[in-house]
Amino acid sequence: MAAKKAVAKKSTTVGKTPARKSTAKKSTAKKSTTKKTTARKTTAKKATAVPRDTTAHDLSAALRNDEVPTDPRVLADFGFDRCFSGPDRAHLSMVYAALMIDLGVRPNELNKWLLAADGDGDGASVSSDNVSNSSSSTGGRRGLKRVGDRIRARFAARADRLRPGPHLAWFRDHQYVWDDADASGRARARAAARRMVKENIASLRKKVKKGERDEVFDWWS
User: Fold this and answer.
1) What percent of the chain has pLDDT over 70?
2) How many CB atoms lie within 10 A of CB 189?
3) What is the pLDDT of residue 161?
4) Cα(147)–Cα(168) distance, rounded to whole angstroms?
5) Biggest alpha carbon distance in the chain?
6) Which of 1, 129, 137, 141 could form a disulfide with 76 if both were Cys (CB 3.0 to 4.6 A apart)?
7) Which of 118, 93, 96 is nearest to 109 (CA)?
8) SS (HEC) of the chain
9) Where is the composition biased (Basic residues) (predicted)?
10) For residues 83 and 177, is the Cβ–Cβ distance under 8 A?
């Protein structure tokens, strides 16, 4: 038998597939844009300090201690130096006490009335630089008249909040304290004070025992 010829098989070598180029992907990372924080500037408001060294505060301090004021500046600013007797000053103290306690008018507001420009009833135009007063009779007679006008208006508007007392009738009959035009009220108050002094002196003379001293006191010695 004839031997089979070994036919050499052609090796069909498949060529290697070319490797794909690795294209590096560009990272489209968003740039982190830092937003500028527009912080609002805090403008500090100037604190308008409420003064506590006015004659109105001195008046309030005296009333708080159940006293009739004696400071000459207070007496001039609020009409006490226009009273003819101690009882009149006591009634005037009660008028201001009713204004503060019954109606809630604070010393700072009362002081603004005293210093208010003409036509500005509530004293809204008074600057903080002018609110503090250390001199006598700061508001003058016109300032005192404005105070009387404001008291009268408040008493009329809130009469239901006022506790009854003799000081209310006294206020009605003694407007001369705030208003120079009330000449008749001033004359009546002067006459009443003189009558009271005369009666008290007469009463003292009656109490003098015979022989202790002369019946007639030597006023000129």
Assistant:
1) 61
2) 21
3) 96
4) 16
5) 196
6) 137
7) 96
8) CCCCCCCCCCCCCCCCCCCCCCCCCCCCCCCCCCCCCCCCCCCCCCCCCCCCCCHHHHHHHHHHCCCCCCCHHHHHHCCHHHCCCHHHHHHHHHHHHHHHHHCCCCHHHHHHHHHCCCCCCCCCCCCHHHHCCCCCCCCHHHHHHHHHHHHHHHHHHCHHHCCCCHHHHHHHHCHHHCCCCCHHHHHHHHHHHHHHHHHHHHHHHHHCCECCECCCCCCCC
9) 18-44
10) yes
List b or e across 194-215, with b for residues whose CB sees 16 or more CB atoms inside 10 angstroms: eeeeeeeeeeeeeeeeeeeeee
Please calculate the CA angle 22-27-32 and round it to the nearest 5 degrees: 170
Does the pLDDT at position 184 exceed 60?
Answer: yes
Of residues 143 and 41, more confidence is placed in 143
Assigned token pair, 174: 């003694």
Domain borders along the chain are 55-116+140-210
Return the structure tokens found at 132: 């503090």
pTM: 0.67
The confidence score (pLDDT) of residue 133 equals 45
Residue listed under structure tokens 């300090």: 49
Mean pLDDT of 193-219: 76
